[in-house]
Amino acid sequence: MRRRDLIIGAASLPFAAGYLAQLMESGALAQSAPAKPADQGQPFNAAQVRQIAHDMAQKPYKAPETKLPDNLSDMSYDTYRDIRFKPDHALWHGENLPFEVQLFHRGFLYTQRVEVFTVHDGRSFQVNYSPDLFTFGPKIKTPPPQGANLGFSGFRIHGPINRPDYYDEIAVFQGASYFRSLAKGQTYGLSARGLAIKTADPSGEEFPSFKTFWIERPMPGTNSIVVHAILDSESASAAYRFSIRPGDETIFDVEMAIYPRADIDKVGLGPLTSMYYFGSNDRDSVDDFRPNVHDSDGLAIWTGRGERLWRPLSNPQELQISVFSDANTRGFGLMQRERRFAEYEDLEARYETRPSLWVEPIGDWGEGGMYLIEIPTRGEIHDNIVAFWRPQDTLKKGAEYIYTYRLHWCSENPFNPQVATVIGTRAGAVDEDTRLFVIDVKGEKLKDIPLDDNVHVAVTNSAGKVQHVVVQPNPNTGGWRFSFQLVPEDATLVELRAQLMRGDEALSEVWLYRWTA
User: Which residues, listed in sequence order, are joined to residue 171 by a DSSP beta bridge?
Assistant: First the structure.
């Protein structure tokens, strides 16, 4: 028997009423039906994925399967890492195709079962679980027995992104609706999610989960791979199509159809999740040898009006939610702009190589707001930053909502602004009553502009008093620097906005900041 025949079994039920009933009743796909010959499969197209999501939303939600043997669910992270997929069993291994796929075992925090199919020539084939696909470390005294049908917790895609003769890991789908990727020369950092619902809501967040994936077999010589997915939660089901193109900038083209089970007024589209522990603007009570520790240092927004905004991130004392109202936003992203090793000094984490992630809406997303949620954290192991777009209108039960967008895993903003960008924000005390803010900006817009009376900084503040505003060229960066002092007076929270101007002409993007006592 060929390895491919061993790993890939045919889908056991067609995309029909019986298939949908099995999916919704059991939460898994065809666990007890007889297997089909491996070379036949079942018909498949993207429209069927939407139909499955639509029909699931018409029935009550059923939580995903999480039951596992005790030794798999009650384990440490180090023990879980000892369960390793055998690379020579990867999908399409040795077939001279541009991508391979490895599967993740269930265990530790990753107890939810997902079903994985491959698609070839318009037909789907289920990837069957077998313990023979994995090696189990010595800490696991009792590996799963032969014949166990545990399913998988996710998968990762490999391809020759850094050099033509080696298949690097380039994308991972694992854990609820989380997925992550990177570009050439980068290391993993922030993550994306399929959907966010009730994030930071007092009643508790709802975490939708991917339940089923269909991975299209890549064509020889192609530079992309396509993944279809079903997502489910208490409030909605959804269908996804991801077209993934790795390279100097890795692109995900995302098509999403949402089918609410109930009215949803707190939904997040294009959600991003990252980590910010401390930085040059936020080192209060930090005792660490490193100057900065973060996967992202700011939120960038390109508004529907064409304005560029930059909001440095912070690690607040209390939960903070910032909302930037807009219409037809052109894009947003959690960015890692600081790319110098000297600003991190971490030979293991290599934060300077973490990707930025830019969300580019395709089409009209209407009125709504860009949400930034900053959660207090006492360490770098927790993702404490969330950003997403929230539509102004409630998503109604029984309706269909189609969204298309593009994810850019990159180093620089994929759409270079026509104004200078903020490359550094620093803050410190002048005395016990006064704070100093120092902002560096850089860009083509500043070249050949002399320092004269027309160049100034427009600063506004919601409370307190701003004084001693200074602007000057910075020969060390090739850009400009401006600074000012904030006297909060009796205020415990001050919203700040600053922009380098020449007369009425904007020379830089808008710098935004929330100071709290």
Answer: 157, 181
Strand partners, 460: 497
The CA distance from 150 to 134, in Å, is: 12
As its CATH architecture, domain 421-516 has Sandwich (2.60)
What type of residue sits at position 402?
A: I
Both tokens assigned to 273: 């999740």
108: left (phi over 0), alpha (psi -120 to 50) or beta: left
Structurally, at CATH architecture level, domain 3-260 sits in Distorted Sandwich (2.70)
Q: What is the pLDDT of residues 90-132, one digit of tens each?
A: 999 999 999 999 999 999 999 999 999 999 999 999 999 999 9
Inter-residue contact 420 to 509 (CB < 8 Å): yes
CA distances from 390 to 57, 196, 198, 384 (A): 21, 9, 11, 19
| pTM confidence score | 0.92
Question: How is residue 248 written in tokens?
Answer: 């100097």
pLDDT digits (tens, 9 = 90+) for 4-14: 333 333 333 33
Ranges of each domain in the chain: 3-260, 267-393, 421-516
d(CA 51, CA 383): 34
At 401, the amino acid letter reads Y
Model confidence at 448, pLDDT cuts 50, 70, 90, reads confident
Average pLDDT for 183-199: 98
The two three-digit tokens of residue 64, written as one number: 């995903």
C-alpha–C-alpha distance, residues 70 and 107, integer Å: 9
CA geometry: angle 53, 57, 62, nearest 5 deg: 100
How many C-beta atoms surround the C-beta of residue 70 within 10 A?
Answer: 8
Are the C-beta atoms of residues 157 and 169 closer than 8 Å to each other? yes
Crossing angle between the packed helical segments 46-56 and 17-26, to the nearest 10 degrees: 50
